Amino acid sequence: MDNGASSYRRFLNGDEDAFVEIVEQYGANLILFINGFVRNIVVAEDLMEETFCDLIFYKNRYKEKSSFKTYLFAIARNKAATYLKKNSRIADLPIEDYEGQLKDMNALENTVIKEEEKRQLYSAMDKINSEYHAVLYLLYFEKMSYDEAALVLKKNNKQIKNLAYRGKQALKSMMEKGGFFYEKQ
Prior knowledge:
Layout: H1 3-12, H2 16-38, H3 41-57, H4 68-86, H5 88-91, H6 95-127, H7 130-141, H8 146-153, H9 157-177
Helix pairs in contact: 1-2, 2-3, 2-4, 3-4, 4-6, 7-9, 8-9
């Protein structure tokens, strides 16, 4: 379970200490993250504070469709983007440079999201049946064929296909229990 989400739920239920936990857990990393955009540590600290203020003022916006950490860092990224749009430093840049910065921010956001998704995947993999784990690991992480996985696990091809199918179902269920929902695009 996402520790930030549980702390945030406790805060929403009136536990003020839970909010302090969130700030202590994510504050320094948010400053570094924001500073990568604004290139000014003082501004980054201010935007970090604004990010946490949004958690207080807009309590019902977090719907647990992503991890709490992803949600929090997305708020921070939006704060940085808004700051950069309002700042004259951006207005003096050619539009091509501004577009490049937006692409960089989107790429960074996608990287953060992908890393969080990987963390959730690894965590879910550790919780499923060991046979399912082994088959899925060999097929998708080691990129083995069904025949190769069958040789490694001393099973026949049909057994590997069945284990892979059941393993994917178990993994999907475990990921959904953890708050991750796959959205087809």
